[in-house]
Inverse folding.
């Protein structure tokens, strides 16, 4: 029988992707030398499932990443586990005997996640290299942010991208090692925090790597325009910036979509087939660290996000810009007399800070449209022209009542204004337009209510006048001093038959004029002449 002398450490610790070695010692006896040595993991059920043993068995889940070496002469055997996963954490046994319930030493293995610190500048970019994961099959890759309730997905290779990261994050698989990289640009202060990148399901997070992203608020990178506007058939240029001190091996422009960026062209002469003949690097200034990309013959489908990029070794810097394509607007339906109207935008570059040196970034952009006779509309740079004078809509309330066509005309003009704002490619104008529209609707409703109140007051005044007329008719005859007034402004007199009980009465009018009489609840208008 085996000896009862067996000992070893009771605690092991390792990092994800790393390795650990555990050594068990036993007394040197013939029985111990020739008995089976094993390494097993205790399940929740209490059963210890063999991972490896000296009989030649190795579990499928640990194939290629566990080994056992027995040295009988020294009375010891060593177990080494490599490529550690977080799921390797648990309770193990190293023992001697034909079964896993005989002589053994119990120990706990803890696999922690190494934290990689990545620093980036405000408005700059970072690159994170993530472990390859399981090379036997293609698994979903993800990037998530750790919080109190778990890890919230930011982006994955299924094409999901959280809204606040649209256009500024990509997940790119490496060509050889199987590892993949995360590229993030236009960094914001709120991007700082703990993240995980890994493969497989988020619940298991196989081979996940913990990354601490720190965004420094003190930045040398200037603010850059995030939107460019072009017209169908026109062209635009994008100037990209990189550090002239760096010997970048690759400079490129790619098109971003669903967490990936497809290469359009690079400085080595590559051009993606659908873009040949209408995209090129027009100029490159190595001394100042810039290159300019020109995209011509613009199409509606060219709208979207684009990235400038520069790469050197394992370092890659990127910046993003969104292209907005406008359609031509015609001022008339007559093709012979119509005038092409091209909405004008104030370039976002006009609002950028003075030019400063940045690692990589969009610093300048221009756009042109095909030549044609044009009558420009007022620029969208002054939306206040439409909203600074609300009184223009209220100075003549009757216009909404006596001239509906005028109101409809103003409504049509407003619709055109909204169309121009919405198609101008300047998203910050949209709240102004919506505010103006809501203000106009509110003013219109208020005017209608006021007009209704006014009409009701007028009707009440008429009823009050008639009531006073009836009261005047039953009063005593006018005094002599007022006879002249009675003749000039005739009023009816009520005369009843005297000496009778019939109660018959009649109205006697003198002079010439018009009078309103209430009879049985109705107002009767009477015209009378002298006599």
């Amino acid at each position: 029988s085996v000896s009862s002398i067996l000992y070893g450490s009771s605690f092991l610790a390792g990092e994800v992707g790393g390795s650990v070695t555990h050594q068990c010692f036993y007394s040197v006896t013939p029985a111990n030398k020739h008995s089976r040595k094993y390494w097993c993991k205790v399940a929740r059920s209490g059963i210890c499932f063999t991972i490896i043993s000296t009989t030649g068995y190795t579990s499928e889940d640990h194939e290629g990443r566990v080994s056992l070496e027995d040295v009988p002469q020294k009375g010891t055997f060593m177990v080494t586990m490599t490529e550690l996963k977080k799921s390797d954490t648990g309770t193990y046994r190293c023992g001697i005997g034909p079964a896993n319930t005989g002589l053994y030493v119990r120990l706990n293995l803890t696999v922690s996640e190494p934290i990689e610190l990545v620093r980036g500048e405000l408005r700059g970019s970072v690159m994170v290299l993530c472990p390859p994961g399981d090379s036997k099959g293609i698994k979903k890759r993800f990037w998530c942010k750790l919080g109190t309730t778990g890890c919230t997905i930011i982006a994955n290779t299924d094409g999901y991208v959280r809204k606040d990261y649209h256009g500024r994050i990509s997940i790119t698989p490496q060509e050889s090692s199987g590892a993949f990289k995360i590229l993030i640009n236009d960094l914001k202060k709120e991007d700082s925090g703990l993240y995980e990148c890994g493969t497989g399901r988020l619940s298991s997070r196989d081979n996940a790597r913990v990354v601490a992203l720190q965004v420094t608020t003190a930045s040398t990178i200037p603010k850059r325009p995030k939107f460019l506007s072009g017209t169908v058939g026109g062209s635009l240029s994008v100037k990209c910036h990189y550090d002239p001190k760096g010997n970048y091996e690759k400079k490129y422009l790619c098109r971003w979509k669903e967490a990936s960026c497809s290469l359009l062209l690079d400085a080595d002469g590559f051009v993606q087939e659908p873009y040949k003949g209408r995209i090129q690097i027009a100029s490159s200034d190595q001394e100042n660290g810039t290159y300019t990309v020109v995209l011509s013959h613009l199409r509606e489908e060219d709208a979207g996000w684009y990235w400038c990029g520069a790469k050197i070794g394992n370092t890659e810097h990127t910046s993003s810009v969104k292209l907005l394509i406008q359609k031509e607007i015609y001022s008339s339906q007559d093709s012979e007399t119509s005038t092409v109207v091209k909405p004008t935008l104030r370039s976002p570059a006009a609002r950028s800070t003075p030019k400063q040196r940045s690692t990589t970034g969009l610093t300048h952009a221009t756009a042109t449209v095909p030549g044609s006779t044009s009558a420009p509309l007022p620029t969208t740079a002054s939306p206040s022209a439409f909203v600074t004078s609300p009184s223009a809509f209220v100075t003549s309330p009757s216009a909404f009542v006596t001239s509906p066509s005028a109101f409809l005309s103003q409504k049509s003009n407003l619709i055109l204004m909204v169309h121009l704002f919405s198609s101008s490619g300047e998203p910050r104008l949209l709240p102004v337009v919506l505010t103006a529209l809501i203000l106009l609707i509110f003013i219109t409703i208020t005017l209608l209510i006021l007009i209704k109140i006014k009409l009701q007051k007028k009707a009440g005044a008429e009823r009050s006048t008639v009531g006073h007329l009836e009261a005047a008719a039953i009063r005593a005859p006018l005094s002599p001093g007022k006879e002249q007034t009675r003749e000039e402004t005739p009023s009816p007199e009520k005369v009843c038959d005297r000496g009778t009980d019939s109660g018959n009465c009649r109205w006697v009018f003198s002079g010439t004029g018009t009078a309103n009489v209430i009879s049985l609840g109705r107002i009767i208008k009477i015209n009378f002449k002298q006599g």
